[in-house]
Design a protein that fits this description.
alpha+beta; 7-stranded antiparallel beta sheet; homotetramer; disordered C terminus; 25% strand; 17 helices; 6-stranded antiparallel beta sheet; globular; disordered N terminus
Chain lengths: 484, 484, 484, 484
Amino acid sequence: MTENHYSIDGDKLREECGVFGLIAGPDSHREPAFDTYNALYALQHRGQDSCGIAVAQRGQLRVHKGKGLVPDVFTMQDLEAFRGANVAIGHVRHATNAASVNPANIQPLLVRHASGSMALCYNGTLANGRSLRAESENRGGIFQGTNDAEVIAYLIVREHLRTHTLEDAVINAMEYMIGAYSMVLLQSDKLIAARDPNGFRPLCIGRIGDAYIFASESCAIEALGGVFLRDVEPGEVVVAQDGELKSFHCRIRAARRSLCLFELIYFARQDSVIDGCAVGAVREAAGRELARQNTVQGDLVIGVPDSGIAAAMGFASESGIPYDIGLMKNRYIARTFIQSQKWEQEKSLRIKLNAVSATVRGKRVILVDDSIIRGRTCARIVKLLRDAGAREVHMRVSSPPFRYQCHFGTVTPPAEDMVASGRTPEEVCRIIGADSLQYLSLESLKRLAGVEGLGFCDACFTGDYVLPVREADPRQLSIFPTLE
Amino acid sequence: MTENHYSIDGDKLREECGVFGLIAGPDSHREPAFDTYNALYALQHRGQDSCGIAVAQRGQLRVHKGKGLVPDVFTMQDLEAFRGANVAIGHVRHATNAASVNPANIQPLLVRHASGSMALCYNGTLANGRSLRAESENRGGIFQGTNDAEVIAYLIVREHLRTHTLEDAVINAMEYMIGAYSMVLLQSDKLIAARDPNGFRPLCIGRIGDAYIFASESCAIEALGGVFLRDVEPGEVVVAQDGELKSFHCRIRAARRSLCLFELIYFARQDSVIDGCAVGAVREAAGRELARQNTVQGDLVIGVPDSGIAAAMGFASESGIPYDIGLMKNRYIARTFIQSQKWEQEKSLRIKLNAVSATVRGKRVILVDDSIIRGRTCARIVKLLRDAGAREVHMRVSSPPFRYQCHFGTVTPPAEDMVASGRTPEEVCRIIGADSLQYLSLESLKRLAGVEGLGFCDACFTGDYVLPVREADPRQLSIFPTLE
Amino acid sequence: MTENHYSIDGDKLREECGVFGLIAGPDSHREPAFDTYNALYALQHRGQDSCGIAVAQRGQLRVHKGKGLVPDVFTMQDLEAFRGANVAIGHVRHATNAASVNPANIQPLLVRHASGSMALCYNGTLANGRSLRAESENRGGIFQGTNDAEVIAYLIVREHLRTHTLEDAVINAMEYMIGAYSMVLLQSDKLIAARDPNGFRPLCIGRIGDAYIFASESCAIEALGGVFLRDVEPGEVVVAQDGELKSFHCRIRAARRSLCLFELIYFARQDSVIDGCAVGAVREAAGRELARQNTVQGDLVIGVPDSGIAAAMGFASESGIPYDIGLMKNRYIARTFIQSQKWEQEKSLRIKLNAVSATVRGKRVILVDDSIIRGRTCARIVKLLRDAGAREVHMRVSSPPFRYQCHFGTVTPPAEDMVASGRTPEEVCRIIGADSLQYLSLESLKRLAGVEGLGFCDACFTGDYVLPVREADPRQLSIFPTLE
Amino acid sequence: MTENHYSIDGDKLREECGVFGLIAGPDSHREPAFDTYNALYALQHRGQDSCGIAVAQRGQLRVHKGKGLVPDVFTMQDLEAFRGANVAIGHVRHATNAASVNPANIQPLLVRHASGSMALCYNGTLANGRSLRAESENRGGIFQGTNDAEVIAYLIVREHLRTHTLEDAVINAMEYMIGAYSMVLLQSDKLIAARDPNGFRPLCIGRIGDAYIFASESCAIEALGGVFLRDVEPGEVVVAQDGELKSFHCRIRAARRSLCLFELIYFARQDSVIDGCAVGAVREAAGRELARQNTVQGDLVIGVPDSGIAAAMGFASESGIPYDIGLMKNRYIARTFIQSQKWEQEKSLRIKLNAVSATVRGKRVILVDDSIIRGRTCARIVKLLRDAGAREVHMRVSSPPFRYQCHFGTVTPPAEDMVASGRTPEEVCRIIGADSLQYLSLESLKRLAGVEGLGFCDACFTGDYVLPVREADPRQLSIFPTLE
């Protein structure tokens, strides 16, 4: 079991990445590298294993990246070296296995090329990444890392050899890319954002003074004091240059929009607004809906910090059952503590989380969280509450049962490790040791998140994948999608 | 202005220290150093500038200490070197000026002496520390640091030259110590706790298996899975040895108990119980009381994270005005970020805290925090909410106006930096830019915290110091207190 | 002026790299990564800016590399992670500008490819590197770094797509590579060494038990306790696999062998034997020859530590003038000291080097060094000796005047910074402030180093480059060499 | 066996400390902290385990110290914080067990006291340290560390309570101190040097501009570009203040001067002059004397780097047998390498030292070193030479057999670990595996080092201790020396 490294949210999915880019305007004295550094803090929840910033500075491209959190990787000296840059992009990333982050996979990727050097980073997963890699290799391409960044770079460079602009190359390359990707690229005088035709991962546009911003989430724009303009549309390529924005569209049209539902449930920061959905409001509404469907009596509503707090408050508000802080999280738990593998899981949880006896003793507790993946942390929290004197513990989950692996940008455990996979809610309830368990239905969730024209990817609940996810033998050439 | 280094709570008082001690029982296989390490995590909120652990290991005393948070100072290797210890004490500490932590002041202090070596650490301030130091120097004592640890050590050692046991030496020494102190000491086979006769600072007793625990707060006992037994009484000296507890009392009797009110308002962790007060419950009740006294209409109650959350929830619950998460705290802000002094205060706050526009826009916001000291952070938060669209911002504070310096264990700014010092609430309201401001009255606060027989120190609100705080010229000998 | 970072040899050329590889034999229990680590210590003089080790471990290729000296880059944990590898290669490297080592240039380079992954590292410079890079880019290749490692990797991979074995691919690729290169490559079960047809840079073969070794210098083989077998021949490709060595030859024949003379004069470690030349013996003989040509009276011979010691001893022995330690080097000067750019050059030199007054006062000193490049350090040493009381200082240099840039694997200053460039020895003598100056003639040097059939590259003294060093416009395709 | 940590000189005694102090003159703009930093580099050979600098800066005393070499402990930032100091002292130290350096023992010791704060550091050992410590403890003194620094501080402070000046306190304190000590102290406007009445350890005075310097060795003065004035006399106390030097003498007169002979043989840097002896000249003369006493034929003289080089050159010069570099030392061996305890001793030596086969093969080698303590490293070097083909190896040692522990400032192994203890030279010769072994006689050594009036401590060779070294029971009061 891979526990979450920096929070008690041990049983959570992991977003793979956050991206950011900023280009200074013609008259502006902003420092894009410093802004990017600050913005990466606001996106840190999207990836804690590595990060990096690439800049164009007096026509030269440079990159600094490494393992760890933003302040671990960047010293003030590192940032100072990027002073005077006119455009910057940044990336935070989660690796499947944090202990063995492959340095060659850390983004942004800086590509030196006669057609014009560039740097790129992305959030997502290419469904046909292995095929595209095999094809590149067959043409003589070499790879240092194992993720899709080099794959995308080869595609774009190949196209750029016959296009005039980088944006045309990106648009061409997108015809070959199947999957989820929200990416930003820079050249010496240009910043480009591109979002896959399905719009799996968020990507939005902001402005601060005469500088333009692209970011995975609106909270990064607000962290700088900038204003949110709009989302990048699925399939859109946006170019910021010379103080202007230009919009293009790739030649692929997806059958439907497919925003990842888990962005709303758990990944995105509560204060972000994604494709028109206010994330915090969706979470609270999910709690309200759970309350409306609730069938048991309770004395107290408790949220699992921090992921279940919003839904728990919605539940309390709708049900009239009082909300209280029954689980106290230690906010000084640092990575060193967790990385040492000396501590048994249960002792470890107790140090991270304390059930407040004075609050829960003798009470019928409604415990709310946003999701249950493997179920082990959930079971330990239920036990913690019982040990602290709770009379009953009723689990309420503000999403449907999680049963299928994600292939579009999220790190999920194998299906056999998911507690709801092949089990009824009653069986799950027994495993986590709760007195009752209710999930939010998929229909309810979609209705709550409903924005005109917005479709979702719900494959992790239903197994219905929007795009084909099985690749042909990677040593074969990929079969390219037919263009419209 | 010295901003709080690791949280958004920039305008907060700083507790000076947390102490902990554990002695293994005769049959136990516990590792006191490892337990102490874990417990210091639970006490980290009481001091983030330095920490240390001292142990007795096969009759030898050893100490490891340094600047920084618990995981910064201790590697697994450092802990492993303490394996096999039978007794350990630990300390976390806040320094007035974090940048220049004087290594000679880091605790525990290990004292080698023919009468039996010992290690000690304490939380508090001696009102007559300078006089005692001067007296020691006049007798030929030398000092490496500037705090009271060496002063106390000289007193105890001097007494120990004519007493049989360390506890007797401590009891004698306490006759000369005027002020606030909760301390733990160890010898090779013994653990001692002592609390000043007024009981300014908390100190409690716990048990896990056949091991005994002394800790500043009960949450540290619970973090280990131990059980809380009782508080150390004011003036009490408790000895844990050979699996037994013995209680003594010093020969000084205080006129009244004087628990620091700010422990309940802000310092202590919400899940701790101090001298019979459940901290979280007091905070929520303070919010309820504020609601009962409230005179304005509001659409929304918001707490300043994390210090104002409990009171805000109490306010919302009592008033019926809905609580919502209108301020979003970035939980990845690390020390490196803040320590770099490159960022202007306002930009810095924005990265730490984001006002959720979707929640506050157009609303009349009731903003709750536990205290206002200097008022600058508060003013910036009010502005943040207005920038995010709040129509009105009404500030409610769950403690009385803070106007006087603390001399009993807390780091406070000079009175002239306290916004309420010499100003009416209306003037403070104008300075922080709120539409209205209400404080909780001292009477209300004391009533809420009221436990049979429990008195409080309220000097920071009233200027009524329980003990004399002006010392004679430190080059003179101290005038020793008359004994009862 | 870029001063040498870790020694007093501030006015020295910088070798660019050292390479090493070891493959365990079928029955051996060696740990190739640990051996490589130890061997890199012995090659550390060939590059101090970055280093790395790549291994094949249970069929998987892995690499660990970073900035700094061998012990800075590798922890024991890093090495332990490579336990069980069957083959390893390692590299030490000097960067032109140490402060800004580009991480993408650190070797070994690990290349993932369908044709079989590999890792490679090299010592040298391709004269046609820019053309080859441009050609690769025109075919869609992307580059992350700026040195020739990726260029060579593309060539080899391109060839490997149509050859069965990696060695055949290397042999084919060598037809396109013009310049100086000694390289080692590994695959999961194979170790390959290749040396350019001119043999500019050293590369030799050793054995320890049933393991085979390739190394830049024989001292690395001896550091492990292994035995030197022979040098890799110019143009030779040697494959070690399954406990056997196989030798191949590339299809290019060079007009003549061209071992770099500076390897013998300065770069190589004194205890190495290169292409049959015992390095220490050559240096001592050079000192003897200088003595035979000497025209002045002296009381004392002094060598500049460490580079001039061997020649100074030869001079003393031949001339009968006593050798003494008149310059004392501080052996605790560490990188931190030098990297701080706070110290003026002269103060800095004084801390690194002290002229022993007791030894030199009133004496006519013969000062011997191996070379003068810029002349500034030399001038400061002459002044140091005069300040310490030396009556006369006669400079003797065991190589000819250095006047031309190297294009075959060495970092040299621009010609205008070389003190001998465009100046007579008399002018140089005046600049360095010596009483007289004599260089060793090129003819003498070649005669001393003379081994049957061994030719040298002497371009830095003569400007006669063995290979063309001006490239066509890099955006053009390279003109490939005609094959034999 | 505790191997030397940073050099191949594994079988060497360890000096315990080096001291330094500098006070700026009235008109000078020197930075004493920066000068001290540079000077500590020049004294680093006297201690590599910890170091520190204390300064007086605008009337305040401050100290920075830690484990490791000078550049490990001090960043530029640390030094910058000391800018503007008017006086500084510094210390380098060797600990008995480097792995467990007790931080409380690291010097300088900063003592805060009403009589005037001071900082002190010393080189040496008090023979009556334990008695003095016990006496202090009986008077109520507390100790944090285990060495004599606090003992000396208590003595001085006790005296200072009844003297007007610090120098008077030092002079008084010296009446109670029996043993070896060379110390420097600072107050806010004053720098003091004091040397024990026997003059065991060196201490000298220098000047640079109008600043005065005290240093363990003259090489530290020269490293700054200063001029050596004279040695501090045994029993002398020198005060530098207001641009003037004042000399005092303590009231104890020693029977005779007793400079440690090992300072000349091994400890001091070769370019230092101590009490009139030029260290390098003594070492070379010792080699010459060995040559005169030599009884065997040899083809080659080799010195063990770095300790045996000077004597080997003297031997070669006197005997006419050629000197050559037959042992090559790796100058990149860093602490990390050695501290890892994974390497067997023999493999470890091979990486540090290589026997040059080309030089020694078939030769009768005269191997010269300055001393043999345990004999194991010596045995390994003899084997290394034989493995490299040496026909005979004749060991010559430029000091007498080392047989007794030092009690005056040196870390020596227990007598039973000294190879010459209780053994004849013939037996030692067999153990180290040499063909013959000759030591320098004590008479010869003293004669060579002979300076008018200079006496030596030769206890390590003879067991004749100049002062009583057995203390009474430390719990008893010390019996104070009778004053003259």
